[in-house]
Design goal:
The protein is an alpha+beta fold and 678 residues long. It has a domain of 254 residues: 3-Layer(aba) Sandwich (Rossmann fold), CATH 3.40.50.1820. Helix content is 16%, strand content 32%. It has 11 helices and 39 strands. Strands 32-33-35-34-36-37-38-39 form an 8-stranded mixed β-sheet, sandwiched between helices. Strands 1, 2, 3, 4 and 5 form a 5-stranded antiparallel β-sheet that branches.
C-alpha cells in the first residue's frame, strides 16, 4: 500500500467519482469522475464506464469514455443506449468567433466520436430524457426579451459591445452560492432525439418563455412518452419570499397547468414513475418562528385521480435521492439515520418501508436495474471515498458488492469508531471519532473537534473538502459529532435548538467533547476546534464561551447575525426561524457570536472566500476586525476568488497547510511556519 495519498500534492490528484447513471437496458453504468487538470490548477470531470457484469473481482476494469479538455458531466441515456452529457468543449464545426458554452453532446451507443447535438447562447444546464420516446428536455439561461435563439445571441452581443454588465432586479434572489442571478434566467426547452442520419437533436422548442425567475434551480421529469414535463415552478409569496409549486407542461403546446400548490410548503424533486401514472415529490416545510422546525416529507401524486399520499407515514425520514423501481411499485430512497445514510425501499401503496443496507455507509445516486434485482449506487463513509456498488433490491440490512471503480481505493491511516454521551437534557449525542494509527493509552492523540455545517445535516460520509484522515496522518484524532439540529435523529433533535442555535448546540458539543477526552487514547490537554459555515458559527460561539481549546479555526462563518440576515443569498429561508432584527430582535441577541467578542482569548484562524454569497465576506471581515480590536492572537486566510468552499487544487493545499501550521503552533507549541506561496 502506497501511503503517499495523505500528502497534499497527491491528495488533490486522487480521482473522485461524482455521479452514476444506468442505461435503460441495465447493461451500461456511466460515472462522471473528476481529477486534476493538466495545468494542475483546476479539476475536470470525464465520463467512465463501469462494468456491471457479475464477477469475482467486481467485473472488468473501468473504461474512460471522454477526454475533453474542458471536462464532461451530467451523464444520461437515450433509449437506444447513446450517452448524453454536458460539456463546454469547443464544437469543431463552430465558427472561429463563437465562444464555447456548456452544450449537450452525444456518444453513439455503438462507439465513435462524441458530437454536439444541442447548444444555446446561454449554455445548456440540466437535462432529462423521456424513458420511451427519447424526447430531451433541458434548461438554458435566456435573456428576458429573447423570443428565439437569434434574439438571445444578438442581445448578448449588444450587451458585450456596449460594455454593460449591470443587472436590474425586481425580486429576490439576486445571488446564489457564488453566482449572480441574471441578467438571463433559465427556461425549459425540448427537442426530439436525432432522427436516422441526423447529427443533432431536433429543433429546440421553448416551453417556458414567460418563466422569469420561476425556474431557478428547477427540477424536471418527463413522462415516459415525453408528452408532459413536470417541473418545479417558483411563485412569489411577498416580502421577497417564494414557494415552489409543481406544474405540468404540455411538450407539444407549452400549455402549463399547476398540479400541486400548498401555502407554506415547497414542493420539489418531482420524479415520474416508469408507467407514467405517479409522481414522487418532496414536500418541504421551512419552519415557523413560533412553531415547528423545518421538515421534509416524501409524497406521491396520482396523476389520474389527483390524490396525494405520504410514502413513509409516521417515519421521520428526510428522504432524498429518489428512484422508482422499474415496475413502478416501489421507491428507493436515501435518508440520514443515526450517523449513516442508508437506502430504503418504500411501498407507496402500503406505506411499508424496509432498510436495504445495514452497514455504516452513506449512499447516493440510486439506479434500480430494469429486472428489479439490483440497485446500483455510490457508497461512501468516513473511512471510504465514493465508489460504485451493487445492492440487492429485495434485501433487508444487506451488504454492498463493490464494482471496479474508476476512482481511488484507499486505505485510511487509522481507525474509525463511535463515541456517545448524554446531554444535560437527557438526549443521546453520538459522534464519529477518527483515530490515528499510533493513538493509545501510552501515546494519546491530540484532539480536534469538528462541527458540521448546515446546520440541518449529519456528519455521515466522506468529505473531500474537510478530510479528517489528512489530520489523522499527522497524529491528530478528529471528533465528528451530530449535535442538536442534526438530521437522522428525528424532529425532536431539531426542536431542541430551533431558534436557539448557540446555547443548545454548545452544550451538546461540549458534552461529546468531554466524552471523547475521557478516553485513554485522547490527550485532553491538547485539543483544538474547527468548523465551517454553521460549524464556523459554532467555532465563533465556542470561542466566546470557553477557553478550553488551544486553537480555533473558523471557516466561512457567521459572526454578526444582524448583518448576515440581509446579505445572505436568500434571507427569507433564514427568517422563518429567526425573523428580522428590527421586528424580532430576541433571537439575534440570544444567538449572535459577535456579542461575546470581548470574552475571546483563544487564538483563532479566520478563513473566508470573497465569492461566498451564502455567508458573505462581510462576516469574515467583521470577525477579523473584532479579533484585532480585542487583541486576540489571530490570522486571516483570505481567498479573493473562492466561494463557500475552497475548490481549486492550489488553494485547497494552502488551506490545509495553513490549518496544519496554525494547529501545530498552538496545540504543540511548534514555531510558526508560514506556508509556501503565502
Amino acid at each position: 500500500m502506497v501511503r503517499s495519498w495523505y500528502e497534499l500534492p497527491e491528495y488533490v490528484r486522487l480521482k473522485r467519482v461524482d455521479g452514476l447513471r444506468l442505461s435503460p437496458d441495465g447493461t451500461r453504468l456511466v460515472a462522471p469522475v473528476s481529477g486534476i487538470a493538466h495545468d494542475a490548477k483546476t479539476f475536470h470531470s470525464a465520463l467512465w464506464e463501469i462494468d456491471v457484469r457479475p464477477g469475482s473481482e467486481g467485473g472488468a476494469a473501468p473504461r474512460r469514455l471522454t477526454r475533453g479538455a474542458k471536462g464532461e458531466s451530467s451523464a444520461g441515456f437515450l433509449p437506444d443506449g447513446s450517452v448524453l452529457f454536458t460539456s463546454a468543449r469547443p464544437d469543431p464545426d463552430a465558427k472561429p468567433e463563437e465562444k464555447p458554452t456548456s452544450s449537450l453532446w452525444l456518444l453513439p451507443a455503438e462507439g465513435g466520436e462524441a458530437r454536439q447535438v444541442a447548444s444555446r447562447p446561454g449554455g445548456v444546464g440540466s437535462f432529462t430524457v423521456a424513458r420511451d420516446s427519447g424526447l430531451v428536455a433541458f434548461t438554458s439561461a435566456t435573456l428576458p426579451a429573447s423570443q428565439n435563439e437569434e434574439d438571445d445571441a444578438e442581445a448578448r452581443r449588444a450587451r458585450s459591445e456596449a460594455g454593460v454588465s449591470a443587472i436590474l432586479h425586481e425580486s429576490l434572489p439576486v445571488r446564489y452560492w457564488d453566482g449572480d442571478i441574471g441578467p438571463d434566467h433559465p427556461r425549459f426547452f425540448v427537442a426530439e432525439p436525432p432522427a436516422d442520419g441526423e447529427a443533432r437533436l431536433g429543433e429546440a422548442r421553448d416551453l417556458t418563455p414567460d418563466a422569469g425567475k420561476a425556474l431557478l434551480q428547477a427540477q424536471g421529469s418527463l413522462t415516459p412518452d415525453g408528452t408532459v414535463l413536470i417541473t418545479t415552478w417558483d411563485v412569489p409569496t411577498g416580502g421577497g419570499g417564494h414557494r415552489s409549486d409543481l406544474v405540468a407542461v404540455d411538450t407539444a403546446t407549452g400549455e402549463r397547468t399547476t398540479l400541486l400548490t400548498e401555502e407554506g410548503y415547497d414542493l420539489s424533486s418531482p420524479l415520474v414513475s416508469p408507467d407514467g401514472r405517479l409522481v414522487a415529490y418532496t414536500r418541504g416545510f421551512e419552519g415557523d418562528y413560533h412553531g415547528e422546525p423545518r421538515d421534509f416529507e416524501l409524497r406521491v401524486l396520482d396523476r389520474e385521480t389527483g390524490e396525494t399520499s405520504p410514502v413513509h407515514p409516521g417515519l421521520e425520514l428526510w428522504a432524498r435521492g429518489l428512484a422508482w423501481s422499474a415496475d413502478s411499485t416501489a421507491l428507493f430512497i436515501v435518508a440520514d439515520e443515526n450517523g449513516r445514510r442508508p437506502v430504503f425501499r418504500a411501498d407507496p401503496s402500503s406505506g411499508a418501508v424496509v432498510r436495504i443496507t445495514g452497514d455504516h455507509g452513506a449512499y447516493s445516486e440510486l439506479n434500480p436495474s430494469p429486472d428489479g434485482r439490483y440497485v446500483y449506487a455510490l457508497r461512501d463513509a468516513w473511512d471510504a471515498p465514493p465508489a460504485p456498488v451493487r445492492l440487492d433490491a429485495a434485501a433487508a440490512d444487506g451488504e454492498p458488492v463493490y464494482l471496479n471503480t474508476p476512482g481511488s481505493e484507499l486505505t485510511v491511516p487509522g481507525t474509525l469508531t463511535e463515541v456517545e454521551t448524554t446531554a444535560d437534557d437527557g438526549t443521546r449525542i453520538r459522534s464519529w471519532l477518527v483515530l490515528p494509527e499510533e493513538a493509545s493509552a501510552d501515546a494519546p492523540a491530540p484532539l480536534v473537534l469538528w462541527v458540521h455545517g448546515g446546520p440541518y445535516m449529519s456528519f455521515n460520509g466522506w468529505s473531500w473538502r474537510w478530510n479528517p484522515w489528512i489530520l489523522a496522518a499527522r497524529g491528530y484524532a478528529v471528533l465528528l459529532p451530530d449535535p442538536a439540529l442534526s438530521t437522522g435523529y428525528g424532529q425532536d433533535m431539531l426542536r431542541r435548538a430551533w431558534g436557539k442555535w448557540g446555547p443548545r448546540v454548545f452544550a451538546d458539543v461540549m458534552a461529546i467533547t468531554d466524552a471523547a477526552e475521557a478516553r485513554e487514547d485522547i490527550d485532553a490537554e491538547h485539543t483544538a476546534m474547527m468548523g465551517g459555515s454553521f460549524g464556523g458559527y459554532m467555532a465563533n460561539w465556542i470561542a466566546g464561551h470557553t477557553d478550553r481549546f488551544k486553537a480555533i479555526v473558523s471557516h466561512a462563518s457567521l459572526w454578526g447575525l444582524d448583518g448576515f440576515n440581509a446579505t445572505t443569498d436568500y434571507p427569507p429561508v433564514w427568517e422563518h426561524e429567526f425573523g428580522t432584527p428590527l421586528e424580532r430582535p430576541e433571537r439575534y441577541l440570544l444567538n449572535s457570536p459577535h456579542l461575546h467578542a470581548p470574552n475571546i482569548t483563544t487564538p483563532m484562524l479566520v478563513i473566508h472566500g470573497d465569492k461566498d454569497y451564502r455567508v458573505p465576506i462581510g462576516e469574515g471581515l467583521r470577525l477579523w476586525r473584532d479579533l484585532q480590536l480585542y487583541g486576540v492572537e489571530s490570522k486571516f486566510l483570505y481567498f479573493p476568488d473562492e466561494n463557500h468552499w475552497i475548490l481549486t487544487p492550489g488553494n485547497a493545499q494552502v488551506w490545509y497547510e495553513t490549518v496544519f501550521a496554525f494547529l501545530d503552533h498552538h496545540v504543540h507549541g511548534k514555531e510558526w511556519a508560514r506556508p509556501e506561496h503565502l
